């Protein structure tokens, strides 16, 4: 891939396939070359923007023939540098953004078939207008695209009830590493005919082929969705509350987010217009946001919620709670949760983690890891929040309030990651719950994954992409 | 694999690994060599019954060294000849039956870790005693084992709400085709670190490695489970009823089974002790069994059910309905559904199908395929029933009432399969919704799967099992 062959003929071929306007080699390519968090910037030979699956196929075949590798890209909102080119200037970025059509909705089958470049929020809203819920929901939903959501098996806030992007997907259309099209756009909920190629491509981060379209599950819109905010005396109590909520609400429990008081204090400090319940209360180390989606009625949802919270207060796992009275209040509560990352950024640079451990081990994990970090770095500040219902915490580490933050990051980031990921491993957890591996965590995958599993992953990569055309060096070392 | 090497040293090695009592070469091996429906019988070199994962690993390594292939076997209840040996007398059957331990239950994480040889019903009952629901449920649950359920991605009656075996599985312990152990027993609901090996092994029918243990999801027991039986005027009405039930009951709808009047008439004829509602009513071509699992109370479940059925009657999609008054009545209704295959067997040999099409196309599929079969085979009788909520029908074909049934099967089975599977394909359906491919449907996979997908499957098989040690000739031609 690092030959010095003249690539002008490839560029001509690509221009011929997609048309002049959709082969970008000049001008500002920052949006394609720089990662979402603006921490790395690569340089592309070209950005190619095909408009059809046939064009994607032709682009891949041209690149294979020229020995040039491809970086598939959706909304480029990933957090692990998985969708931007390296700095060789010899990779082609294949942007799916023009393939944004909602191809078909099947109301009786409760499915939608959609192209990879459709923005998640566009899909959510279009489905809602037709009376359906498409439940995948995450912070970047205004920019991320469904193909990238699937390639990275996106998670978000509704996983507790509806699963990750993987569980919402019934079928894929793929252009593989040879440029061949596989139409696996099944709307079937049961189909046991051969190996599960769909799930192999979901979460493969563009390293095996390109997702061009998908058939996704829909759900009836709930009759009412209510949100509550509960003060809990400890992380242990939050886990007990989760069990109570699952027992009382069953599948109606669609959200369960935990937030540490320091994380909330940053919202209070940097977004004073957001009114954070129980802010600064020393007896409230954590708050929990609960969402209850009811197929019956708002009255029923409210009664169920109140019964749950009364029981939780009786059991001492909730000290106080509010239930949003209307949609605006509910949105306000969600805004607090969603603005934690922004408040954190306002406070200054920090080391982010996206970890998961079994729900039963969360409290002990947090207690032990907090201790390890405080011992290693006096004054360190822990911004702990996340999808507790899935065992997934964004366990972020903020520099001490005093001192040079940039120097802190440069000096301590590696050490901090090491402390956190070793602790995660000791609790049978994952160093990447929902963000994936990308270019950023290749080393962690090698360090923490079993050699047997790694060998099988490498064998699969070599079998399906022997020329290493697809996103080389991401997920697995090149 | 077909050399004539002396295999005595291998047998000694296997005996050494598992102990004398657990290497079977003599006596009645019918239970291991014959398939569940007693249609084929192979001949094994030996049946080996390891008691630990380490023993499974050693057995695989010994067979690899000797160039002998393995047939992994659980309860041997599969319906596609996937778990019995060929007739060469040179394959080793590896039975997981001794590895039946429930290793650990994690109540806060809602997971259980269980060995492959645990019988499904044993697991269901053990979990219920601890206050949890393990929802996988299917006809063979008294004999089938969890490892086989995962290797074949078993479906059953609760898929509508809880998914197939695949969706219930969070992690696997695997012995791969080289005899290496991968401990992937994760209890995590989110883990995006590398390719999805778990889902690749789920549904791989023993052709990539051996599942020795799994971590599975649990659910809180519902407060009440109610069953209703509705008479519907057509298959179209049944599909409309499904949509209404999904809207009204949400995730509480845990079962939705449709049964044609002829299928029910066979139950009425051969099991007269079972009282079939609406039996023989000419205005009731189909009945639907609905199950409603409520986390609140029986009163609430009953009120919800009654509201749904009233709405359905108003809309003309249900002509009459009964809701079981107690558990015995509910079990009685389920018995009718579960006894259709037995009643069919009593009536005589028949050609079974396990197909799925998108729910939106079921009515048209049935109408057209019924017509094609009746045209080709005057007097043919169609036993149509199944998991309508998943688009999965057991669309079975019974010989005409008069004539030589055995001769009919021999002469017409191929033609019947051809008519049904071509029709399924024209409706974007699957020729094997939940039973898998095994040895029986290798040809159908080659005929109906896309060449691109087949090539990727073959590449994966070769990459992970280059010696073709694991269940050769099943799923993919050897």
TrEMBL record, chains A, B:
InterPro entries given in the database record: FAD-bd_oxidored_4_C, FAD-bd_PCMH, FAD-bd_PCMH-like_sf, FAD-bd_PCMH_sub1, FAD-bd_PCMH_sub2, FAD-linked_Oxase-like_C, FAD-oxidored/transferase_4, Oxid_FAD_bind_N
BP GO annotations: respiratory electron transport chain
FAD-binding PCMH-type domain residues: 40-221
UniProt xrefs under PROSITE patterns: FAD_PCMH
Cited Gene3D superfamilies: 3.30.465.10, 3.30.70.2190, 3.30.70.2740, Uridine Diphospho-n-acetylenolpyruvylglucosamine Reductase, domain 2 (3.30.43.10), Vanillyl-alcohol Oxidase, Chain A, domain 4 (1.10.45.10)
One Pfam family it belongs to: FAD-oxidase_C
GO MF terms, alphabetically ordered: catalytic activity; FAD binding
UniProt entry tagged with the keyword Flavoprotein: yes
Cofactor: FAD
UniProt KW Flavoprotein keyword: yes
Keyword set, alphabetical order: FAD, Flavoprotein
Listed PANTHER family: BLL6224 PROTEIN, D-2-HYDROXYGLUTARATE DEHYDROGENASE, MITOCHONDRIAL
Family note: Belongs to the FAD-binding oxidoreductase/transferase type 4 family.
Entry protein name: FAD-binding protein
Origin species: Xylophilus rhododendri
Source lineage: Bacteria, Pseudomonadati, Pseudomonadota, Betaproteobacteria, Burkholderiales
């Amino acid at each position: 891939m690092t030959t010095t062959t003249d690539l002008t003929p490839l560029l001509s071929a690509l221009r011929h396939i997609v048309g002049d306007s959709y082969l970008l080699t000049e001008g500002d390519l920052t949006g394609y070359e720089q990662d979402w968090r603006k921490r790395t910037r690569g340089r592309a030979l070209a950005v190619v923007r095909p408009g059809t699956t046939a064009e994607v196929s032709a682009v891949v075949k041209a690149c294979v023939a020229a020995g040039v590798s491809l970086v598939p890209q959706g909304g480029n909102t990933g957090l692990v540098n998985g969708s931007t080119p390296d700095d060789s200037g010899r990779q082609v970025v294949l942007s799916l953004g023009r393939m944004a059509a909602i191809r078909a909705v099947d109301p009786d089958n409760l499915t939608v078939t959609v192209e990879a470049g459709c923005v998640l929020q566009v899909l959510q809203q279009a489905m809602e207008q037709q009376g359906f819920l498409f439940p995948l929901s995450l912070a970047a939903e205004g920019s991320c695209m469904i193909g990238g959501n699937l390639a990275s098996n996106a998670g978000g806030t509704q996983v507790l009830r509806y699963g990750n992007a993987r569980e919402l997907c019934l079928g894929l259309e793929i252009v593989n590493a040879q440029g061949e099209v596989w139409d696996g756009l099944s709307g079937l909920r049961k189909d046991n005919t051969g190996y599960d190629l769909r799930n192999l491509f979901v979460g493969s981060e563009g390293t095996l082929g390109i997702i061009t379209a998908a058939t996704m599950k829909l759900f009836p819109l709930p009759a009412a969705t209510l949100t509550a905010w509960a003060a809990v005396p400890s992380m242990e109590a939050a886990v007990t509350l989760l069990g109570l909520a699952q027992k009382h609400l069953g599948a109606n429990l669609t959200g369960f987010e935990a937030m540490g008081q320091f994380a909330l204090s940053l919202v209070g400090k940097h977004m004073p217009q957001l009114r954070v319940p129980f802010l600064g209360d020393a007896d409230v180390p954590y708050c929990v946001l609960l969402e209850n989606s009811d197929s019956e009625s708002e009255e029923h949802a409210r009664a169920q919620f109140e019964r749950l919270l009364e029981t939780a207060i009786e059991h001492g796992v909730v000290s106080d709670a509010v239930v949003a009275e209307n949609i605006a209040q509910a949105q306000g509560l969600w805004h607090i949760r969603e603005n934690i990352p922004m408040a954190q950024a306002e406070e200054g640079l920090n080391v982010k983690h996206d970890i998961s451990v079994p729900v039963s081990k969360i409290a002990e994990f947090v207690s032990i890891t907090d201790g390890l970090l405080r011992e290693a770095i006096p004054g360190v500040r822990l911004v702990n929040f996340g999808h507790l219902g899935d065992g997934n915490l964004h366990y972020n580490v903020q520099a001490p309030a005093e001192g040079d933050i940039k120097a802190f990051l440069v000096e301590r980031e590696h050490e901090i990651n090491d402390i956190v990921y070793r602790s995660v491993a000791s609790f049978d957890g994952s160093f990447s719950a929902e963000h994936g591996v990308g270019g950023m965590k290749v080393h962690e995958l090698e360090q923490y994954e079993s050699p047997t599993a790694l060998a099988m992953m490498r064998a699969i990569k070599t079998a399906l992409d022997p020329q290493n055309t697809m996103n080389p060096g991401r997920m697995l070392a090149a």
